[in-house]
Design goal:
By secondary structure, this protein is α+β, with helices and mostly antiparallel strands. It contains six helices and five strands, in the order H-H-E-H-H-E-E-E-E-H-H. The chain has helices spanning 8-15, 28-38, 55-62, 72-82, 145-149, 168-178; strands at residues 40-45, 86-95, 102-110, 113-115, 136-142.
Length: 179
């Protein structure tokens, strides 16, 4: 499967609201071209068990942040910051839902495999797959640790709200400003 031909700007603004509201200031055609040229298909899963992190690492990492399943943007960034072996990716999943086939999503890559902490509760149980519209095909772009680390302060204060900014807009601007 290849990257779907979509208006990514519109999809992210609509489906990913409010996390992508900052994209309203970005040129739509430039953003769409950038996504088309830089996002990669990472893989397809048939079950959340396929994206389960190793148990010992899961237990260790979730002690370092306020893990809440379903909080994909927050969890994937926190996991990356707590263990650099987990690469931070953000993008979307394509799924078998006729009404919302594209869902913005962040996840990690560990030892070449997709790992998705947001699909598991604090007790290491997968969330229900009943309404998940599997299979899911993951698409995204790696945002390097050094860039994510600039936002470290947003994660580890217990009083701070969970930071659900996927950093995609900031990474896009960073890349465009350096080209």
């Amino acid at each position: 499967m290849t990257l779907p031909k979509l208006n990514f700007h519109e999809e992210f603004m609509e489906e990913g609201r409010p996390f992508y509201s900052s994209l309203s200031s970005v040129d739509e055609s430039k953003f769409n071209e950038w996504v088309a040229n830089n996002f990669k298909e990472i893989g397809t899963i048939e079950s959340f068990e396929q994206v389960k992190p190793p148990k010992d690492l899961f237990d260790k990492i979730i002690k370092g942040y306020n893990h809440i399943h379903g909080q994909c943007h927050y969890s994937a960034k926190a996991v990356c910051l707590l263990d650099r072996r987990f690469k931070y990716y953000t993008g979307f999943i394509e799924r078998g839902d006729q009404y919302t086939p594209i869902v913005t999503h962040s996840f990690n890559i560990y030892e070449g495999a997709i790992v998705d902490f947001s699909r598991f509760d604090k007790d290491y149980n997968p969330i229900s797959e009943t309404w998940s519209t599997l299979p899911h095909t993951y698409f995204g772009i790696n945002i390097p640790f050094e860039f994510v680390e600039q936002y470290r302060f947003d994660f580890f204060d217990e009083e701070a709200p969970r930071d659900m900014d996927p950093l995609l807009h900031k990474w896009f601007l960073n890349i465009k400003n350096h080209n």
